[in-house]
């Protein structure tokens, strides 16, 4: 690829992963290393979200799913949780106009019930104002847990069976896909996790069945466009076999 900051790398623009999922990890450690409070790391991480969204859009990625808050993150100190819950509002206040101009469609996946009104209102507004857009789908996983998502799907499917709308024999992978929060989106082709941790932390367990995994030692606030393109470059040199030969 020429011209963009991914110089040096030659990305095959005909083989860009359609859907990239990212576990944005390491904000707290980034801050600690600098003697700053953890929330300073979350603030710095927001800049990376902007940069990586642009980087994905520039090369024609169709969907970018960012893990922003897990169903387990409620265990954190109250102040930190509160700060994280304020971030979508702040992010969208500064970015929504540009996202609209860039033809980005904002979506959210996760359990909406426990989220504060100010968080949900910001997300609803962004969804509403970008729902006609046809470019990059920017998905925020907020209060998201894969097990929670699967339980929700199973309950919905069980209800359909109980209501005689669905036969047990007809429950298929496609049925599951219909009831997951990712309904309508292709499975991620590539999963990236920053900060050196090598685990999924309850993220998209169903959808990542055949995704390529890529891990970086870099803390999320230090993650760059170049590294993002490096991940895609390596993705393009892997052989996806799906159990075949
Ligand atoms: C990722 O960074 C952001 C969220 C989980 C919300 P962390 O806050 O987990 O940072 P570390 O892993 O403690 O460094
Ligand atoms: C995963 O990171 C959740 C998000 C990035 C939002 P965590 O930092 O919460 O994961 P663990 O606790 O290290 O597994
Ligand atoms: Mg972490």
Please give a structural write-up:
This protein is of the alpha/beta class and 245 residues long. It has a single domain (16-145, 187-236), classed as 3-Layer(aba) Sandwich (Undecaprenyl pyrophosphate synthetase), CATH 3.40.1180.10. Helix content is 42%, strand content 14%. The chain has seven helices and six strands. It has helices at 27-33, 38-58, 78-101, 117-130, 146-162, 173-179, 225-236; strands at residues 19-23, 63-70, 105-109, 137-144, 190-193, 212-215. It has a six-stranded parallel sheet, sandwiched between helices. Strand 3, helix 4 and strand 4 form a beta-alpha-beta unit. Helix 2 (38-58) runs parallel beside helix 3, helix 3 packs parallel to helix 4 (117-130) and helix 5 crosses helix 6 (173-179). The longest helix has 24 residues, at 78-101. The chain is globular, with a radius of gyration of 18 Å. The two termini are 30 Å apart. Bound molecules: 3-methylbut-3-enyl trihydrogen diphosphate (2 copies) and magnesium ion (MG).
């Amino acid at each position: 690829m020429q011209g963009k900051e991914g110089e040096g790398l030659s990305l095959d623009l005909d083989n860009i992963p359609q859907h990239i999922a990212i576990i944005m990890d390491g904000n707290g450690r980034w801050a600690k290393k600098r003697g700053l409070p953890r929330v300073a790391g979350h603030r710095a991480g927001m800049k990376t979200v902007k940069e990586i969204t642009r980087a994905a859009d520039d090369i024609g990625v169709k969907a970018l799913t960012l893990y922003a808050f897990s169903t387990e993150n409620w265990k954190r100190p109250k102040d930190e949780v509160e700060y994280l819950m304020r971030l979508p509002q702040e992010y969208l206040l500064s970015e929504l106009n540009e996202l609209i101009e860039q033809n980005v469609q904002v979506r959210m996946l996760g359990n909406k019930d426990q989220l504060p009104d100010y968080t949900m209102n910001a997300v609803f507004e962004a969804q509403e104002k970008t729902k006609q857009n046809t470019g990059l789908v920017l998905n925020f996983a907020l209060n998201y847990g894969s097990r929670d998502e699967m339980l929700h799907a199973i309950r919905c499917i069980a209800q359909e069976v109980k209501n005689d709308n669905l036969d047990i024999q007809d429950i298929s992978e496609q049925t599951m896909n219909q009831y997951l929060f990712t309904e309508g989106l292709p499975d991620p082709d590539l999963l990236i996790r920053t900060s050196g941790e090598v685990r999924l932390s309850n993220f998209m367990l169903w959808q990542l069945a055949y995704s390529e995994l890529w891990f970086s030692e870099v803390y999320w606030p230090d993650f760059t466009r170049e590294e993002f393109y490096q991940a895609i470059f390596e993705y393009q040199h892997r052989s996806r076999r799906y159990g075949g030969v």
